[in-house]
Amino acid sequence: xxxxxxxxxxxxxxxxxxxxxxxxxxxxxxxxxxxxxxxxxxxxxxxxxxxxxxxxxxxxxxxxxxxxxxxxxxxxxxxxxxxxxxxxxxxxxxxxxxxxxxxxxxxxxxxxxxxxxxxxxxxxxxxxxxxxxxxxxxxxxxxxxxxxxxxxxxxxxxxxxxxxxxxxxxxxxxxxxxxxxxxxxxxxxxxxxxxxxxxxxxxxxxxxxxxxxxxxxxxxxxxxxxxxxxxxxxxxxxxxxxxxxxxxxxxxxxxxxxxxxxxxxxxxxxxxxxxxxxxxxxxxxxxxxxxxxxxxxxxxxxxxxxxxxxxxxxxxxxxxxxxxxxxxxxxxxxxxxxxxxxxxxxxxxxxxxxxxxxxxxxxxxxxxxxxxxxxxxxxxxxxxxxxxxxxxxxxxxxxxxxxxxxxxxxxxxxxxxxx
Length: 419
Known about the structure:
By secondary structure, the chain is α/β, with parallel strands linked by helices. It has helices at residues 14-26, 68-76, 99-121, 128-132, 139-150, 159-164, 178-186, 227-231, 243-250, 308-315, 319-334, 397-417, and strands at 3-10, 30-33, 45-46, 54-55, 60-61, 89-91, 172-173, 191-192, 197-201, 207-211, 214-223, 236-238, 257-264, 275-279, 290-294, 301-307, 342-347, 382-384. The strands form 4 sheets. Strands 1, 2, 8, 9, 10, 11, 12 and 18 form an 8-stranded mixed beta sheet that branches. Its EC number is 1.13.12.3.
C-alpha cells in the first residue's frame, strides 16, 4: 500500500470514527487505518452469545442528558433505558444484605468517594487508598466500585484525576448496544481493516506511515489509539516522542476490567429484567468483588463485571478461572444448581488484545497533570484522540467521540493554515 492523502486517522474506535465523520463533512481526502479486523474498538456489541444484544465494552451513556450519543440514539432508532428502576441487590458472600445493611453500605461507599474527591479538589495528587483511610465494614464494596470506575486498584488511582472526572447520576443503558450505535452513527467511512501502523516518520515534509501493506504518506495524522499501544512502543515515532509526551502516555495506563457473559438454559434467577447485583465477601474482604446485570434483554443470562488487580489475578489463571469465579458469585446468591445449566459463555479479553491493551485510562498518583499534555499536537501535524483525551469525560465512549471531533477540527485548521 503506497499512497498519498491529506489526513490519515489511525484507529477506528469511537474517537477515530468521530474524526472520520468530521473529515467527511469537510470534504477532504482522508483514510482510516484500523489494526484489527473489525471497527469500533472498545465499542463492540455481541448479538449472538446471549441471543440479545450486549456490549463487550462500553454500555452506559454516562452523563446521558449531555451525552451526544443520546440524541444520536433517538435519531437512529436505538432504544435507551432510563436509570435502573430496580434497587441494586447486595450479596455479602453467604447471604443478601438487609435493607439496613444496604443503606449503611451506601453511606460508607459515599464517604470513601467524597474523601477521595475532596483530596483531589484540594490538589493532593495522592493514591485513592491514602485519602480513603482505613477500610470500614463495607470497605470491600467501596474498593470494588473504585476498581469498576477506574479499572485500577486504589493504590494506583490518582485522587486529582478521579476528582477531575465529571460524574452524574444519569447513566442510561443502550439496550440495542452502544457499540452498534457507535458504528451506525459513523455510517460509511473509508476504513481499511487489518492494517496496523507500526511507525510514524515525521522527519520530512510529508508524514510517512509504515504499515504491513506498505507506506502511506499524508499531510496530517490523527492518532486515535489507546495509551497502552503508544506506551508499549507498538506504534513508534521517528524521531521519537519528546520525553514529556512519552511520559504522559506511560502515566495513563489502561487498567483491568472485563465481563463474563453467561447464558443459562432457563431463568435461574427469578428476578425482574435488568436487575443489578453487587457481590462482596465480608468474611474474606481481600477477595475480588463482582457486579452483575441479570436477565439483560429478558434473556436467562447474566453479565458479570470484574475489575482491578484482584480480578486480574484470577484472569491470569485462564479464561476458565474467570467463568468459574462468576459462577461461584452467582451460585452463592441463587444456588449452586445454576452451574449445571450454563448453555454458553463468553469472556472479554481487552487486556490481552495487543492493539487495545486494557480497559480505560487512569492516571497514576502524582501524575494527573500529564493527562493535559496529550492534547498538545506533535510537530503541529500529529494530533491525538481517544478516551484518555475526553477531558472531564475521560474513560468514556462519548469522551472519546468528542476528542475525535476536536482532533479533526485541529487537523483541518492545520491544513488550512499551511495553504
